[in-house]
Specification:
Distance between the termini: 25 Å
Strand content: 25-35%
Largest sheet: 7 strands, mixed
Number of helices: 2
CATH topology of the largest domain: Nucleoside Triphosphate Pyrophosphohydrolase
Shape: elongated
Structural class: alpha+beta
Order of helices and strands: EEEEEEEHEEEH
Radius of gyration: 19 Å
Number of strands: 10
Helix content: 10-25%
CATH superfamily of the largest domain: Nucleoside Triphosphate Pyrophosphohydrolase
CATH architecture of the largest domain: Alpha-Beta Complex
Length: 191
């Protein structure tokens, strides 16, 4: 039987028919799954998709301090959950505009980062690069402040997530960092 954290409670009822769900090991599966007792629909607990955009201007990267949990007050690049009716690129564009008021065209793809989460569904983080932002920097409701950082001034010890750290390291590695120092990988502490 799978154990779930009190932070993440799996669904108890079927989204198709409303019947109760029970955890079972099926012949067609290699791990226990939530299955509807009424209609037999299998409910997969899939990872959440997050899209981020590393916005660049004049050799600097735009970072923002989070005004929401988790990791309130720490630094990350614009990003958030992808909606069911949008592409990854559209999600990145929307998140940048919502969080910092800039318009960007996400691309090229910088990297895809994944990790299971011990207290809920795992995450899959898709990160794009983007240059040439237009518009005026305007702080959205999920952001305390936003600033442009030279690579040597990135607040490595105060980044929001290890995926933020990984993506910024890859961004630095993929450009002419002009001597910027790559910090060591952070300890595992959350998505």
């Amino acid at each position: 039987m799978t154990s779930y954290s009190p932070i993440f409670a799996p669904p108890r009822f079927c989204s198709h028919c409303g019947g109760p769900l029970s955890e079972r090991l099926l012949d067609t599966e290699d791990r226990p799954r939530l299955v509807c007792d009424r209609c037999q629909h299998i409910h997969y607990l899939d990872p959440k998709v997050v899209v981020g955009v590393i916005v660049e201007r004049g050799g600097r990267v735009l970072l923002q301090r989070r005004a929401i949990g988790p990791r309130y007050g720490t630094w990350t690049f614009p990003g958030g959950y992808m909606e069911v009716d949008e592409t990854a690129e559209a999600a990145g564009q929307r998140e940048v505009e919502e969080e910092v008021g800039l318009r960007v065209k996400p691309g090229p793809l910088l990297g895809v980062y994944s990790r299971p989460a011990p207290n809920g569904p795992g995450i899959l983080v898709v990160v794009f690069r983007s240059g040439r932002p237009t518009g005026r920097l305007r702080i959205g409701r999920e952001v305390l402040e936003a600033r442009w950082f030279h690579p040597d001034d990135i607040p490595w010890g105060d980044l929001s997530f290890e995926t933020t750290h990984w993506a910024l390291r890859d961004w630095l590695s993929s450009r002419d960092s002009q001597g910027a120092r790559l910090p060591p990988r952070p300890p595992l502490r959350g998505a």
